[in-house]
Structures are given as structure tokens and as C-alpha cells.
Specification:
The protein is of the alpha+beta class. The protein contains 7 helices and 10 strands. A 3-stranded antiparallel β-sheet has the order 3-2-5, with helices on one face. The chain has a 3-stranded antiparallel β-sheet with strand order 6-7-8. A two-stranded antiparallel ribbon has the order 1-4. α3 crosses α5. This is Prohibitin.
Length: 282
Amino acid sequence: MILSRADLAGRFIGRCFAAAVGFSFGCVTLVKSIYTVDGGQRAVLFDRIRGVRDFTVGEGTHFLIPFLQKPFVFDIRTRPFAISSVTGTKDLQMVNLTLRVLSRPDINRLPEIFRTLGQKYDDKVLPSIGNEVLKAVVAQFNADELLTERPHVSALVRDSLMRRASEFDIVLDDVAITHLSYGAEFSKAVEQKQVAQQDAERSKLLVAKAELERRAAIIRAEGESESAKLISDATAAAGIGLIELRMIEAGKDNAASMCRNGSVMYLPDSGSNMVVGVNPRH
């Protein structure tokens, strides 16, 4: 059987097309059979026949069966997560708390995490257990104790939250209280209490000052009384000579004081002594 040139060309084109299709399928299959796990990541392999495989795939390039197996990549690096809660204290005061949590998955438990929680495990677990732990711990303290015993409160929250997170195969590297505030009524009450305490301290100082002044006045009066008694006794023993001596001493002091004053001159008179103030400029 002799084929025409057109038939030969058609067969050749068909074979080329089949080869191209086969090559393309082979390339697609090869690409689909390779996947890469980057640094700081781990992968869980899902098999359509056997389900989730019970091992974790590490970093690097790996092979799988195309269209039968599929990788799910997890970020295993520590990530921050904020948890906010409004809860009541032991004395029925409302408090706003915010926690900053550094979390990561347990690498050896990634298949179980994928089975039960999926890839967004932290969004599903941390808000609920965070609120639960905060409400349980804060209810053990009064409002003012949350400030005075903050390190103890933080330690209780950290230990309780780490224990609860471990039940879901989540590792918490750090838990810290970043924000703590009270309602408007409690804040106003605290402010009024501080003002009252300051007023009380000020009153104590005024009372102490008055007491010191009273004691000083008593001591001063006792001293004056004792001085008067001594003068009286001396006068009774020596006559008025002591008084005249005191008058002479006072006069000497007055004279010395006036001599140092340039605007005072002493003018003797025939009948009496006069002290006249004179301004040297006139």
C-alpha cells in the first residue's frame, strides 16, 4: 500500500503531537511529584488512600505521588498572638487585660494538629483558652491586688495558659500581660482614695507642726519664768543695783548702735540730753 505525501505528513504531525502531549504530561507529572519545604517550615503529607501520614516532613525538596498525595506546609517559627479579655475581679470590678503570647506548634505532633485543628490552629485555640485562663486567674484577686501583685498574677496566667495550650499540642515560649486597665468608676474611686490619703497626710503634718509649736511655746514660757525668778531672787539679794547695772548695759548697747548710724548725732543740752536725727545731705 502506497501512501500519499499528505497521508505521510498527517501521520508525522500526529506522532509529533502525541510526543508533545506525552512530553508535556511527563513534565507536569514531574513538577507535581516534587515539592519544597522552606526553612522554618515543616510539612504534613495527605494520602488520598491512607489519609494523613503519621510523620513530619523536614526542610528541603521531596517527592510524592502526583494526584494521590498532597503536602500541607506549617510554619513552625515562634509567632506573636494577642489575646484581649474583659473580666471581673474578686471584688466585682471590671478589668481590661491584654496578653501577648509567643506560640509555635509541637513539631512531632503536626499530623495530629492537622487532623484535629487544621493549619489555623492558633486562631481556633488561643483566644478561647486565653479568655478562660484570664477569667479564672483574675477572679482570685481584688482589683488593687492586680497592681500590687502583678508578677504573681503574670506567673499564674503563664503557667495555666502553657498547661492548657499543651493539651492542644501548642508550645508557648512566653506569656506576658501588656495592658491592664479598669473601668471609669473604679479609676475615679482610686483617684478619690489617693486624694483622701494625701489630705490625711497633710492633716497629720499640720497636727505635728502645731504640737511642735505648742511645745516650743511651753519651753519658751518656762524659760522666761525661770529667768524672771532668777532676776527676782537676785534683786531681793542685792537690791536695785542689779537693775541699774542692766540699765547701764542697755544704754551702752543703744549708744554703740547709734554711733554706727551716720544719720544720728548726739547734741548735749544744759537741762537734758537729746538725741536728734540729722540727715548729712542737707
